[in-house]
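Hey,
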Amino acid sequence: MNGRRVIGAVDQVSYWSGKAAAWLIVALTFVVAIEVFKRYILNAPTAWIFDFNNMLYGSLFMLCGAYALALGGHVRADFIYIYMKPRMQAVMDLLLYFLFFVPGILGLIYAGYDYAALSWRIGEHSTVTAEGPPVYHFKSVIPIAGVLVMLQGLAEIVRCVECLRTGAWPSRLEDVEEIDVIETQLSRSAYVDEESRRQAMEGAHAIDEAARHRSVVDDTERQSRTP
């Protein structure tokens, strides 16, 4: 199996695990709506709902970490990085992955597993509110999320090696982005002509590409792509 196949397979795992975890936001919205109704209409608040909300949101946040990494969506300081050539970017990424990412995530998995195992052993319940719900299920999410992020991190390391070998970054998975919504709105607007729409989208795509930390599209490049 070559490097690009490894990257593609791991990207798919991260993509669909993130998609599955994203449904927790629906559950969270439903729980909050029900609690608001009970608290302010029926005057019958639920004691443990605060803990449950935290568990749902915390699980959503952690389980979508690998998805965000696969799509290059994590925040980073890139004011120097984006002006580097792809191979230099790959060298920097590799250094940062081995110096910080791998040790940090390994520590998260190790500590998270111990944390969850102890919680299961004692049948831990939340002490934040009265009648606190069990938290061992929630704490089990920590090592699981750590493993998913580590798996995607290893794919990112392979991605860096591929970039060093070929001089270009392997493609990433794509999902619906805000820029796609903008493009749809512009295409349906009766007040924007085709030329203005094309120029606006070229600029938006250039900014989006730079924001994904892989390249900067300068004016000469943009002009060369203009028919």
